[in-house]
Amino acid sequence: MGEDKSQLIYHGKSQRDHLTELLRPYCNVVFWSVNTTQEMELETAGRLQLRIVDAFDIQGPLNGILSAFKYDPEAAWFVVACDMPLLTVKSLDALVKGRNREKMATVFYDSDGKLPEPLLGIYEPAFRPILHQAMLAGEYSPRQLLQKNDSQLLTAPDIRELTNINDPTAREKLGL
């Protein structure tokens, strides 16, 4: 994208602010997963949003999930990617309602309906050691880890809500 996707304006406000408001009814506390550069930018801007800074020397979303578990290993973590501007309470409600605490995670099938969507889901505490071992073994794909472990897979109520906007062309086509 060339810029921080959480700062893009959708719905008349930054995606960060929009998702924080969207998640508040579902979470006791809403944290933002950030890298060290983003942490410094938030500090400079005086943003008070609670955040968890990447704690591991790996690239990608697994770092954020593992860092959250490092912060609180007993919590179930509700993970939402910042690049899903069409996400609404319809999908969040369906995810919470379909949650299976006996599984390692509860996620939707991706927009193709074939693979798990790792960046919109609830990760249970029992998954933490598996994720950590995978990282030590050089396995960094949350999607592959969900496929290899006992996860609850749900069909999204509106597949369009899972749309990821990762480049300017996709954002332009979205028309928001």
Describe it for me?
There is one protein chain. With 176 residues, the chain is of the alpha/beta class. It has a single domain, classed as Spore Coat Polysaccharide Biosynthesis Protein SpsA, Chain A, CATH 3.90.550. It is 36% helix and 18% strand. It has a 4-stranded mixed beta sheet, sandwiched between helices. Strands 1-2 form a two-stranded antiparallel ribbon. A hairpin with a 6-residue loop joins β6 and β7. The longest helix is centred in the middle third of the chain and has 11 residues, at 61-71. It is globular and about 40 Å long. Residues 1-149 form the MobA-like NTP transferase domain. One of its GO terms (biological process) is Mo-molybdopterin cofactor biosynthetic process. One of its GO terms (molecular function) is nucleotidyltransferase activity. This is Molybdenum cofactor guanylyltransferase. InterPro entries: MobA-like_NTP_Trfase, Molybde_CF_guanTrfase, Nucleotide-diphossugar_trans.
Structural descriptors:
176 residues; Spore Coat Polysaccharide Biosynthesis Protein SpsA, Chain A; alpha/beta; Nucleotide-diphossugar_trans; 4-stranded mixed beta sheet; MobA-like_NTP_Trfase; 7 helices; 8 strands; nucleotidyltransferase
